[in-house]
Design goal:
The chain has about 450 residues and is α+β, with helices and mostly antiparallel strands. About 30% of the residues lie in helices and about 25% in strands. The chain has twelve helices and 16 strands. Helix 1 crosses helix 2, helix 1 packs parallel to helix 6 and helix 10 packs across helix 12. About 20% of the residues are buried.
Length: about 450
Amino acid sequence: MKLYDVLRTVVEQFGEEILAQPKLKGFVQDYMPDDRQSIHMIQSAVTSQLGQQLLDLKNVDKSTRELRMASIRQAFQDRFFLRDGVAEYLVDCFQYALGWKKDKPSDPSEEKREEPKSAQEVKKQKPVTPPRQQPTGPQKPANPPKPPKPPKPPRNTKKMMAIAAVVLGVVAFFFLGGWQWLSGLFAPSAERMYVLSETVVVRANASDTATVVKEAVYGQELMVMMPDTGRWAQVQRSDETTEGYVLKESLVDKKDLERLNSLWGDDEARQNITESRYRRALIHFRKEVNADNDYKVYGADYKGRNYRVEEAGEFGAFAFIADNKGSGLRQAAVYSFDAEGHPLLEKPVDEQPSEGQYIKKIALENGNYELVLGGKKVQKASPVVASSESSTPKKNNKSDEQSEPETPQKGGTGFKLEVVDDIPSGGVSQDNNNANGKTGTGFRLESVDDIPQ
């Protein structure tokens, strides 16, 4: 059974999408367990996404398809250092399986180079040698015997054995698939990226309807193997060998992940702000607007409205307040989004919210985004500065904090001094009926509340 027959059988059983999946190699191994060359070719096709590249040409006109297919064949041959005809044969096998090619491809390994018939006949004919003529003149004396050659020095057998071992090792290396290792060695190195969303699904191939292989969580490191696949990136966990595809918008580099982590004030903010585009807006704020790590976004503060999402504009808007708990300062920002979900910073907020205020609404007026703030500003008490006695004379004995509001009917608190004739001789007394028989003139002091101002 040939490779093109195996591919067509697999497509008839599992559909055309099987040509773009890694398990295609397993089916070929089941049908052709002893054909190592075909297995290696299919492994190379899976690694380079040859099947997916051909499926992308399904709805293209024939002339354009032929041009692109020639480019795909050349790139495949150059990447894996294949001899002439192998890449063309493998692409033709895929076309035969998809029904694009009616004639069965010819296997280059079975082609034999035949010599021209005329050349074969020439080989069969024996050359005719003319008869030797006897010399007629005087004959030359026979050549004297040559002296024996000196014996050759013994060869370095160890050196020869080492060279032979190296040659055999190189041959075995390439025979056992070492060319694949070399192609991977010179391929672009994988890039380390990190999950931006709380969770993201990893699919078997680059399609929204492909099978879910597993899930990755926020902050998890993934190795991006092939980033140039449209909206998708081929990834692999650093501690696993299983590969899959995730959306590029759900991945960020390490610096952006650190910027986002520096903005989380508590777990509630992170658990509620989950969409990738909102988190990219937070990253832009930390990177381009406010790099002070003391400013953070909190989830539960002032009725939980430190951030808000509105269906304002064509693709929605997102606003949030960053708090600096140490200084008491706050900063608000408003972002809109384009069709691809990229955050766009709107004009800076004119009035920054103070302590006690929250985001009530995001309004769009005349193409400008405005924040409608709710709550009341928290007014902090200003320190009381006491005046000196020399600059302001006191009118009563009570402090400013204890004084009542000034009215025209009432005065302040003070003392009244009266001259009294009948004071007992024992001293100052408030008892005017003390009849001890001894009186004198003195003063009486009374406390009075309503002293005219």
